[in-house]
Amino acid sequence: MSPAEFQALLLSWFAEHGRKDLPWQQAISPYRVWLSEIMLQQTQVSSVIPYFLRFTERFPNLHSLAAAELDEVLLYWSGLGYYARARNLHKTARLVVADGGEFPENITELSALPGIGRSTAGAILSIACGQYQAILDGNVKRVFARFHAVRGWPGQAKVAERLWEISQRYTAPLNTGAYTQAIMDLGATLCTRSKPKCEICPVASACLALAEGLVNTLPEAKPRKALPVKQIFFLILSDPEQRILLEKRPPSGIWGGLWSLPEFAELAQLRDWCRQLGADIAGLQILPAQRHTFSHYHLDYTPVSANLINPINNVMEANSRVWYKSQQIGSLGLPTPIKRLLQF
What we know:
The protein is of the alpha+beta class. It folds into two domains: about 5-210, Orthogonal Bundle (Endonuclease III, domain 1); about 230-340, Nucleoside Triphosphate Pyrophosphohydrolase, CATH 3.90.79. It contains 15 helices and eight strands. It has helices spanning about 5-15, 30-40, 45-60, 60-65, 70-75, 85-100, 105-110, 120-130, 140-145, 155-170, 175-190, 210, 265-275, 325-330, 335-340; strands at about 230-240, 245-250, 260, 265, 280-285, 290-295, 300-310, 320-325. Strand 6 and strand 7 (about 300-310) form a beta hairpin.
């Protein structure tokens, strides 16, 4: 099947069956395409939609996002995970606004901005600007790995290079924005990771994986290795006014910039820290351990609750450590496990 035939079949299918009512497909702009592409990384469409709607209601454009404080941006991102995405969004918004307020329309300059790689830049420029640019997000990798029976894990440089070459060759030079949305939609709705709907795929007749019985094995998975386990203790400390002590995490790393509970590597460290406060601690209670899994390790955390009695001169407070009342905590950017522990 030639690229022209592929494009014609795909665009015809998209015109009749493709999704056209997603929030980011309305009032298309570089800002909205960029935001949706970042949110959709590692996240399902159904999960992204309510976040996208809330986020764009509060930050309808690049300037409103750039003018906001990072704390508020993280609040509206809280629960989506991979928080570096939100930090990069905020950083990029400020950089672009400082440089005139318009996204670069050169793919090299655009893909150099924080959090925007080659594929995201291609999506912005093709969908919002009408440029002839290829993309290679997870859905497109899966489509072309199967269509051309490309072996190997797409995260490997040689495999990725091969898939980029295929994507570039098949990208429609005209009506590229519609083609880009169509190829992403094909991967998201028909050429899915499990139970692909090959029987109604518009390009199934030329799919090598289908012909060779490889649909369920391509693309090949990343070589597996056991995830390491990190164990920590979280302190849920209440004061006589029923306020909870929270700490702001460093700007980078896991949960960067979010508010969390004081964290300790060992229970003995937690106990020592409490003893050094110069105030009385009562009702220390070790709660059942829980697990939160990141992409590269398991976090086993044990909550420990306690009450602070007779606090002395707010010795607990620091620039990154604050007492919060329960009604305030719900308005903060919190990691999902901390939300669950505090029931917000």
